[in-house]
Design goal:
Largest sheet: 5 strands, mixed
CATH class of the largest domain: Alpha Beta
CATH superfamily of the largest domain: ATPase, nucleotide binding domain
Mean pLDDT: 94
Radius of gyration: 21 Å
CATH topology of the largest domain: Nucleotidyltransferase, domain 5
Distance between the termini: 18 Å
Number of helices: 12
Order of helices and strands: EEEHEHEHEEEHHHHHHEHHEH
Low-confidence stretches: none
Shape: globular
């Protein structure tokens, strides 16, 4: 049986994986549930990882695996890392393996394994720069309570703030009030406050409101334009330390819904980083995990 590598990338909502031969040809794609051990039931995450691996091993021997790389949030914690090590041992892998952050797998995928910078702006926001030697710098990504400026959560929070301030007369009226009420199926500010502070509310729910910013802008809403500019400014600031780390010149790949789907935020972001090449991410993070596994195998 031919040798192969496995790359897996996962988070709190789902996971994906790739099995490839030693030339990088994709042999199998896997898809499964979340594999983030932080704040989750260990048994469930174990089962999700085992299910992914079972998909990848179909028709293959575990002993033929040349290397495996897993990218996930929270691996800087010793208990999380220990859980990944334990599940790999349980499933029989003895090949070289790498357990790394999801930002590293995203970087490898976005830049096809080359040096440069990736900015990921989805529910959260983080920047990672990697040089030719493989040394890296992380900027941001410290969570929605104290960080994540420029993310979908950040935009959603500013939308809600604008709606409240407009209602009180502290700031300009905004189309966002109408759009938020319509999306949530409510009609009053007390209902909105109840929705925001519900014990069931998640940061993903707040982040899901970010999409409203585009329609509001298209309808000529001044507040929406200001929020988009703030998001672009914060995302550009994430890149500044990484650019300095890489000597002032680097390719920046953008990933995540905010920079990939919102053209105005992306263009404003690019304008703030003059003379720097900004590209769309070349591949997704599971592909990046596969590339990192290939590097180990070779």
């Amino acid at each position: 049986m031919s040798r192969y590598v496995i790359g897996i990338d996962g988070g709190g909502t789902g996971s994906k994986g790739i099995v490839a031969d030693l030339e990088g040809n994709i042999l199998c794609n896997m898809k499964g549930g979340p594999i983030n051990y932080v704040g989750a039931d260990t048994r469930t995450i174990d089962e999700n990882i085992e299910n992914l691996i079972e998909q990848g091993l179909k028709g293959r021997e575990v002993s033929d695996c040349a290397a495996i790389c897993i990218g996930s949030a929270g691996v800087s914690r010793s208990d999380v890392l220990a859980n990944f090590e334990r599940i790999l041992e349980k499933t029989g892998f003895t090949c070289p393996h790498k357990i790394t952050t999801d930002s590293h797998t995203a970087h490898a995928g976005a830049l096809n394994g080359k040096e440069g910078i990736v900015v990921i702006a989805g529910t959260g926001a983080i920047c990672l720069g990697v040089n030719k030697e493989g040394d890296s710098i992380r900027v941001g990504g410290y969570g929605h309570i104290i960080d994540d400026e420029g993310s979908a959560y950040y935009i959603g929070r500013l939308i809600l703030r604008a709606v409240i301030r407009a209602f009180d007369g502290r700031d300009k009226k905004t189309v966002l009030s109408e759009l938020v009420f319509e999306k949530l199926g409510i009609s009053t500010i007390p209902e909105l406050i109840t929705w925001i502070y519900s014990t069931d509310r998640s940061k993903g729910d707040i982040a899901a409101l970010a999409i409203l910013i585009e329609e509001a802008y298209e309808r000529g809403d001044e507040v929406a334009g200001e929020i988009e500019e703030k998001a672009a400014e914060e995302l550009a600031k994430l890149c500044e330390p990484a650019l300095e780390f890489l000597g002032g010149k680097a390719t920046i790949a953008v990933s995540g819904s905010v920079l990939q789907k919102n053209r105005r935020i992306r263009e404003s972001f690019k304008e703030r980083l003059k003379d720097v090449e900004v590209i769309q991410a070349m591949h997704e993070a599971d592909y990046g995990a596969m590339l990192l596994a290939l590097k180990m195998a070779k």
